[in-house]
C-alpha cells in the first residue's frame, strides 16, 4: 500500500485535533453551568446528615443546621434547607451541597429562593436563561424544581403573545414588581409584569392564571400579618380597613403573633392579644423561623438595628407557654461587615 505523503499526514493530524477539540468543547458546554442554555437544569439529590427541621442560619461561609456546620464556598446570600440538601444563591448562581463541597448548578441571577410548605419544591425566578429582548436582557421565568428527584417540574415563561410586546425588559423590571412570591398547597405564585401581573402556577402543570389578589403565603417565619397595638401593651391582627402599627407573623398553629422587627422577646396570643415575655438571654430578639407549631427560634443579640442583629449573638429556641429559651450552638460575634442570615424555607412544619 502506498505510504501517505507528509502533507496528507499533516492534514489528517489537523482534522483529528479539530475533532478532539470539538468533542472537548461539546463536553464543557454540556457540563458548565455558566454556559447560557434554555435547557432545564436539575438539582443534585444528596443524603445529608443533618436534621432538616433544626434551626438553620449562616454567618459568612458557615451554614448551621442544628449542630451540623456546612462550610460553603462561595458564601450564601439566600438559602433553603431540604431533606436532600441545601440549595443556595451566591455570585448570581444557584449552588447545592449535602455536606460536601458546594456544587454550582446554574447561573440564574435570582435574588431569593422559596420552599413549598411540604419541603418538596424549590422556587425561584430565573433571570439569566430566558429569551432575550433586543437589548440582550433575558426574560425572567418562574421555575419550580422537585428537591427529592432534582427534576425541573415547572418552567413557565410569559405567553408568546405577551413576549412579542414586552419592549425593553430592563426598563420594565425597574418600574414593576417581578419575583417568585411563594407557594400554597397546590400552586406557586410569581409576579411577572410581562404576563400582566401575578400568576398562579399549579404544581400539577395545568394552565396558569392571573390573579387579582394574592393569598397570604406562609414562609419560614409564619404567615405575614398586619398588627395593631392594644392599650394594654398587647397586639392583635389588624382588621380590614384598620390602620396597622406594625408588621408581624402568625405562627403555623395560628395561636401566636410575633413582631417582624426586633423585640424584647415577646409573643402575643393571637386570639386575646395578651403579651407573653420569654427570656431570650439578651436584649434584642429577631425571629428566624419555626421548628414546629409551638417552637420558634431566632437570634438573641446585644445590639442591632430594627431588622439586623449585631455584636454578641446566639441563636435560641423558645416554646410557647414556657418562659425560658434554650441556646442552639455557641455564641458568636457579628461585626460591621458580618451579618446573620436565616433560611427562607425548610420542611419545618411537616
Structural features, described:
The chain has 350 residues and is mostly beta strands. It is built from 3 helices and 26 strands. It has helices at residues 6-31, 160-164, 169-175, and strands spanning 56-59, 62-65, 68-71, 78-82, 85-90, 93-97, 103-107, 114-115, 121-126, 141-146, 152-155, 179-183, 187-192, 197-202, 209-211, 223-229, 235-237, 246-250, 256-259, 266-269, 275-277, 284-292, 295-304, 309-319, 326-334, 340-342. It has a 6-stranded antiparallel sheet, with no helix packed on it. The radius of gyration is 24 Å and the shape is globular.
Gap between N and C termini, in Å? 76 Å
State the helicity in percent bands.
10-25%
Classify the oligomer: single chain
Report the major sheet. 6 strands, antiparallel
Structural class: mainly beta
Radius of gyration: 24 Å
Shape: globular
- Percent strand equals 35-45%
- The residue ranges in which pLDDT falls below 50 over 5 or more consecutive positions are 1-37, 346-350
Order of helices and strands: HEEEEEEEEEEEHHEEEEEEEEEEEEEEE
Number of helices: 3
Tell how many strands the DSSP assignment holds.
26
Mean pLDDT: 86
Spatial arrangement of strands, main beta sheet: 17-16-18-19-20-21
Task: Give a quick summary of the entry.
The chain is mainly β and 350 residues long. The protein has three helices and 26 strands. The N terminus and C terminus are likely disordered.
